[in-house]
Write a structure and sequence with these properties.
Layout lengths: L11 H24 L6 H12 L4 E2 H8 L3 H13 L3 E6 L2 E9 L1 H22 L6 H17 L9
Antiparallel strand pairs: 1-3, 2-3
Helix pairs in contact: 2-3, 3-4
């Protein structure tokens, strides 16, 4: 059966994708453990990171696109973090209904604490790579994502 051409995970791309799925699961588990003392989960911390990256100038739909997630799931997390006093919603000069998601001062302090916990962990992970390897891998992942965003029928085109 292993010699059959349709056997899953024979192709190097299949093995890489499986490893990315495993990496995602490991990152979520490690993130949950890392930020649990702060009363956060990986999901909340991920949305906080997207807000930080957008510098408080993004509505929920843009945050979701940046994270590759459904708007509805990000909206639920944003609503929870607004209720917790971590985010506030601000008027959007470009859209009357799509409010901008911003940190409150307490929320920014919490994000800073999570970032301080993450920094040494990130350095330890980076130590696993050769110089330039992370940048090359990040570039590869971005190219693969861009190809996938064009839809499955574009996979064979160059």
């Amino acid at each position: 059966m292993k010699d059959h051409p349709a056997y899953p995970f024979q192709h190097p791309t299949d093995a890489m994708i499986l490893e990315v799925f495993r990496l995602n699961g490991a990152l979520i588990a490690a993130g949950d453990e890392l930020v649990k003392p702060l009363g956060l989960t990986s999901a909340r911390w991920q949305v906080m990171g997207s807000v930080a990256q957008g510098r408080g100038e993004s509505p929920v739909a843009q945050l979701a696109r940046n994270m590759g997630l459904a708007r509805q799931s990000v909206q639920r997390v944003v609503d929870d973090l607004v209720a917790a006093g971590i985010f506030e919603l601000a008027p959007n000069p470009n859209h009357k209904r799509a409010k901008l998601v911003r940190f409150t001062p307490d929320g920014m302090a919490l994000f800073d604490k999570a970032t301080a916990l993450w920094a040494p962990f990130a350095e330890a992970l980076a130590a696993e790579a050769e110089p330039g390897e992370l940048a090359r891998f990040t570039d590869l992942l971005a190219r693969l994502r861009a190809r996938l965003e064009h839809g499955p029928n574009h996979g064979g085109e160059t």
